[in-house]
Write a structure and sequence with these properties.
Shape: globular
Number of helices: 12
Mean pLDDT: 84
Strand content: under 5%
Distance between the termini: 43 Å
Radius of gyration: 19 Å
Number of domains: 1
Structural class: mainly alpha
Length: 299
């Protein structure tokens, strides 16, 4: 049971980071970013290239410096990829008619083109990242929990807490919250849509980059490694309520637990059916999602 809960929390941590980024982008600038998978993959490849550089030029293959560097470089690369998406899909289109649809198509195109570029640049093979938290296991009774799982949960939780406090206490965070509640009113009192939107895209990119680095501890970096996190992130952000960080966190825990339990007690192939069934059930009883903040405020 303990191992199941830990696996669920690991999945919730990684998916929750991506889902919060998607939710922030949609609620602040009204763009559903289908290029979030591209951003996720960019963060993984950035971290991979950093590990290769450290091994070749600094002869560093393990240690705290490598761990911190991989996390920071992965987040930075993904944040830059998020800004690139903003330059291509947000700034040129945000004041056009039907911006949500135009942005949806533009980010989908970026995702498809980005995947092909990753295949050309890095090849179709999977790329490994080092075990940042080691390969040892801690024991609770008769149960063994990997250090990597514990580290993933702690790091993801800390980062999500920092983002939440930043949103509540900083000037830019308050501007983003104002954009979520009333974009037109926020613009009238001097909140820059362009600047706020680019900040939201950079933050969502950094969160996806962290998720990519953490996920690569179990799997690998590949040109299509962002497809599954994007899909799950989208349904989690819908189930949690677009614009609600607490709702998104709650939905990520529920879906993480559903995935872990389904994979453990039934078949891995049934996971998508259970996930989508759970989301449909949530939206049937609570159409605005578990948080339901955005629509309540705007109405």
């Amino acid at each position: 049971m303990i191992e199941l809960l830990v696996s669920a929390l690991v999945l919730a941590s990684m998916y929750g980071l991506v889902a919060i980024g998607i939710s922030l982008t949609w609620s602040s600038i009204g763009m559903l970013n289908l290029a979030q998978g591209f951003v996720f993959t960019a963060g993984g490849y950035g971290a991979y290239e950093f590990t290769q550089w450290m091994g070749k030029h600094q002869h560093v293959h393990t240690g705290n410096a490598l761990m911190v560097g991989v996390v920071l470089v992965g987040m930075l690369t993904a944040a830059l990829a998020g800004l690139l998406v903003g330059l291509l899909a947000f700034l040129p289109l945000h004041d056009r008619v039907n911006f949500p649809v135009r942005g949806l198509i533009a980010t989908l195109a970026i995702s498809v083109i980005g995947t092909q570029l990753f295949i050309i640049l890095f090849g179709p093979q999977n790329k490994p990242l080092p075990q940042l938290f080691g390969v040892k296991r801690m024991h609770i009774g008769s149960h063994g929990i990997a250090y990597g799982q514990v580290g993933t949960i702690i790091v993801a939780t800390l980062v999500m807490a920092i983002v939440t406090f930043w949103m509540r206490g900083s000037r830019r965070g308050l501007q983003m919250r104002a954009m979520m509640m009333n974009p037109m009113g926020a613009n009238m009192v001097g909140v820059s849509v362009r600047t706020t939107g680019m900040v939201a895209l950079a933050i969502s990119g950094a969160l996806s980059g962290l998720a990519s680095v953490m996920l690569a501890q179990t799997f690998f970096v590949s040109p299509r490694s962002g497809v599954a996190p994007l899909t799950v992130g989208l349904i989690i952000s819908l189930a949690g309520g677009l614009g609600s960080i607490p709702g998104t966190v709650a939905a990520s825990v529920l879906l993480g637990l559903a995935e872990a339990a389904t994979a453990r007690y039934t078949k891995q192939s049934l996971v998508p059916f259970v996930q989508f069934g759970l989301v449909i059930a949530i939206l049937a009883f609570r159409p605005r999602g578990l948080g339901g903040v955005l629509e309540d405020v705007r109405e």
